[in-house]
Amino acid sequence: MEIMIRIEKLTKSFGKFKALDNISLHLEKGQAVSLLGPNGSGKTTLIKSILGLVVPGKGSITINGRLVSKDESYRAGIGYMPQIGRYPDNMTIEQVIRMVRDIRKDPADCDEELYFRFGLNKVRHKKMRTLSGGTRQKVSASLAFLFSPDIYILDEPTAGLDPVANEILKDKIAAECARGKLVLITSHVLSDLDGLTSHIIYLQDGRLMFHESVEQLQARTGERKLNKIIASILEKQNLITC
Ligand SMILES: Nc1ncnc2c1ncn2[C@@H]1O[C@H](COP(=O)(O)OP(=O)(O)OP(=O)(O)O)[C@@H](O)[C@H]1O
């Protein structure tokens, strides 16, 4: 299988505190990888390291063969949906989408499926500051998928979405994985990840506790649902719940 993200012996400290401790991981084309772990376990720090927003102390990250520390152009191949999207308050939804689209040289082949399926076209004249949390989340998701990148990093993407929007987003993620994209997703709501995830990464105290396929985990625990699988492993290993 083709490795898209290669993380080798990654360590990140904030002062004396190790937020990431010697993490090594390979993530492949077509995988939907759920990044799990309790609050403060290092999930966001790992995501930010991949995005080049946090500079690791030791180790390396390679994205599609390019070292993250060397060159920023790899970022164009990642669609990132942050936990909380921050946008210019006085711009309308339409202006924000257009502004991001215009940054790219060839805006013709934009993927606007989510924009339309979420019905954002119907509220496109609303200013960002007036939007509900869920609608803001829909704008963030639409932007992350706009350029059909090879890799998606989605930080708590379903938080605040209503059930219909949730299903639309899950359908889209599954369709992109089927097209060979790599999706890395964090969520504390494990039921949102059921049926979507192919692999689980579990962090605790900045350390990698396990990285396995859902099939392997199902076979190991005899459980089908993610919350049962995780509960079973945590109980056996005496880990903390996410
Ligand atoms: N800029 C920073 N300065 C100091 N400590 C930090 C900084 N960023 C993160 N940390 C610490 O690193 C640890 C990991 O934080 P991180 O945000 O990666 O956790 P998380 O797994 O994403 O948590 P959550 O589930 O709450 O979002 C935490 O103890 C946090 O306080």
Please explain how this structure is put together.
Residues 5-230 form the ABC transporter domain. This is ABC transporter domain-containing protein. InterPro entries: AAA+_ATPase, ABC_transporter-like_ATP-bd, ABC_Transporter_VariousFunc, P-loop_NTPase. With 242 residues, the protein is of the alpha/beta class. The chain has a single domain, classed as Rossmann fold (3-Layer(aba) Sandwich). It contains seven helices and ten strands. The strands form two sheets. It has a six-stranded mixed β-sheet with strand order 6-7-8-3-9-10, sandwiched between helices. A four-stranded antiparallel β-sheet has the order 2-1-4-5, with helices on one face. Helix 6 (214-221) crosses helix 7 (226-237). It is globular. 37% of the residues are buried. The structure holds adenosine-5'-triphosphate.
For the record, give the distance between the C-alpha atoms at the N and C termini, rounded to a whole number.
30 Å
The H-and-E topology, N to C, reads as EEEHEEEHHHEHEEEHH
Average pLDDT taken over every residue: 92
Proportion in β-strands: 25-35%
In DSSP terms (H or I, runs of 4 or more residues), the helix count works out at 7
The small molecules bound here are: adenosine-5'-triphosphate
CATH topology: Rossmann fold
Q: In which order are the strands of the major sheet placed?
A: 6-7-8-3-9-10
